[in-house]
User: What shape does this take?
Amino acid sequence: MMTITEKVAYLKGLAEGMKMDSSTNEGKLLLAVIDTLDDIALTVSDLEDTVAELSAQVDEIDDDLGEVEEDLYGDEDEDCGCDGEDFDDTLYEVECPNCGDVICLDEEMLDEGEIDCPNCGEKLEFDFEDGDEPCGCGHHHED
Assistant: This one.
């Protein structure tokens, strides 16, 4: 399969082989169209090279980010919002009704009865009830 640049080079060769007369209006037009196609083909080729280079860089950044996430979070349980931290206390997940941010709280924080959302500052009040179901990570979370 020919590239755009190769196709335009073929058209240029055809025009030269046909000995297209650049003194006629039609000849001037066709030669100008071929020159324009040549410029477009070169631009597309440069863009393809740039996209390939950027794609490779994005892949490298993604790999690096994956390594950073692994270093920060380790083998985090995806269902648990506890960020992989090892707590001795029972933790509960609470979603801020104002901003939707999920906050992990321990029993001491719940016993206080309220906390300001660290994301938006909304005052959150808690009515602690025992018997909440665990999420499977070994910590207990509020629904």
Summary: The chain has a mean pLDDT of 81. Helices lie at 4-17, 25-73, 107-112.
